[in-house]
TrEMBL record:
GO terms for cellular component: membrane. Residues 66-197 form the Peptidase C39 domain. It comes from Acinetobacter rudis CIP 110305. This is Peptidase C39 domain-containing protein. One of its GO terms (molecular function) is ATP binding. Pfam families: Peptidase_C39. InterPro entries: Peptidase_C39. GO terms for biological process: proteolysis.
Length: 277
C-alpha cells in the first residue's frame, strides 16, 4: 500500500513538473509561483520562462570596454565609430590603425594616442573628423556624440559625450560604462573644452549611443572615485609599476645622446592613455 501511494505521488509530481522539450535561450530561468497564494495546490502553479541578463551588459550597453588600464583613447574611438558611424571594429583593430596612420614615434614617446592620431585613422577609413574647442553650450547643442577628454582624480581620460538632460551630462565611459555627471562637475573635469567629432551623413548615422531610459540615473563622484580611481591614492612609483605591467613593450632605438644605450635598441613601455601635449 505504501509503495502504491509513494509511486502515485511521484508520478503526479513529475507529471505536474514536466520538463521543457523546446530549445531554451541561454539566459532562460524558469520562474514558478502558485497562481492563488491562498491555495497551496500543486495543480494551480504558474510557470514561465524569464530571461535574466548580467547587469554589466546593460552598464556597458553600446560601449567598447577598454581592454587595458590605459587604453581609454582607442576604446572611446571604437565606441564612437561603432555606435555612431556604424563600423564593426574591435579595440585591437582600432589600436593597430592608430599606430599605422598616427605619429608612431610620438605615440611611443608619449605613450598615448592624440586627437591627431584619431583624425588620421578616421580619414584613412573614409570619414571626415576633427578636434574642436568650444563652450559647454556648443557641446550640448551637438546633435551627435563626441569624444571628450576629462581630467579626474589625477587621471586624464577619454569618454564619449552622449547627451545632456535636466542638468546632467551623460557619457559612455570605456572604464565605467554608461554614467552621468552633474553639469557643474562636468565643466570642472572637462579638459580644455575639447571635443572630437566624426561627420556622418544624417541618413547613415547609427543610434547605439542615443540616450536610453536606463541611462537616467545618477552616479555620484564618491562612487566613481571609489571604484575607478582608487590607485590615485597610492604611491606614484607603485602606480607606474602597475601601469608598466599592464602596458605593451616595444623595442625602440635610444636617441638620448647622454644615455649609456645611445643608438641601441631598448625596451619601451607603451601605455595607452590620454595625455595632453
Amino acid at each position: 500500500m505504501i509503495e502504491i501511494t509513494l509511486g502515485s505521488a511521484l508520478i503526479y509530481y513529475f507529471a505536474s513538473h514536466a520538463l521543457e522539450v523546446k530549445p531554451q535561450p541561454t539566459d532562460a530561468v524558469h520562474y514558478t509561483e502558485i497562481a492563488d497564494p491562498r491555495e497551496k495546490s500543486f495543480g494551480r502553479q504558474h510557470r514561465e520562462v524569464v530571461s535574466i541578463k548580467p547587469a554589466v551588459e546593460d552598464q556597458f550597453r553600446g560601449i567598447v570596454r577598454q581592454a587595458y588600464d590605459y587604453s581609454c583613447g582607442s576604446a572611446a574611438l571604437t565606441t564612437l565609430l561603432n555606435g555612431h558611424v556604424g563600423t564593426n571594429l574591435t579595440e585591437l583593430q582600432t589600436m593597430e590603425g592608430l599606430l599605422r596612420y598616427g605619429e608612431y614615434e610620438r605615440i611611443v614617446e608619449r605613450r598615448s594616442f592624440s586627437l591627431l592620431d584619431m583624425k588620421r585613422f578616421v580619414t584613412a577609413i573614409g570619414f571626415e573628423s576633427g578636434g574642436y574647442r568650444g563652450e559647454f553650450k556648443d557641446l550640448i547643442e551637438q546633435t551627435q556624440p563626441a569624444i571628450v577628454p576629462i581630467s579626474y582624480a589625477g587621471f586624464k581620460h577619454f569618454v564619449v559625450f552622449k547627451a545632456y538632460k535636466d542638468g546632467r551630462v551623460y557619457v559612455a565611459d570605456p572604464a565605467l560604462g554608461n554614467i552621468s555627471f552633474d553639469e557643474e562637475r562636468f565643466k570642472e573635469v572637462w579638459e580644455n573644452n575639447t571635443l572630437f567629432l566624426i561627420n556622418v551623413p544624417l541618413g547613415q548615422q547609427k543610434s547605439l549611443l542615443a540616450l536610453d531610459e536606463k541611462d537616467l540615473r545618477h552616479v555620484d563622484d564618491a562612487t566613481v572615485n571609489r571604484f575607478a580611481f582608487v590607485d590615485a591614492q597610492l604611491n606614484t612609483d607603485y602606480v607606474n609599476k602597475i601601469a608598466d605591467r599592464a602596458s605593451t613593450m616595444r623595442l625602440i632605438i635610444d636617441k638620448d645622446k647622454n644615455s649609456d644605450t645611445y643608438n641601441e635598441p631598448v625596451r619601451s613601455y607603451m601605455r595607452l592613455y590620454y595625455k595632453r601635449k
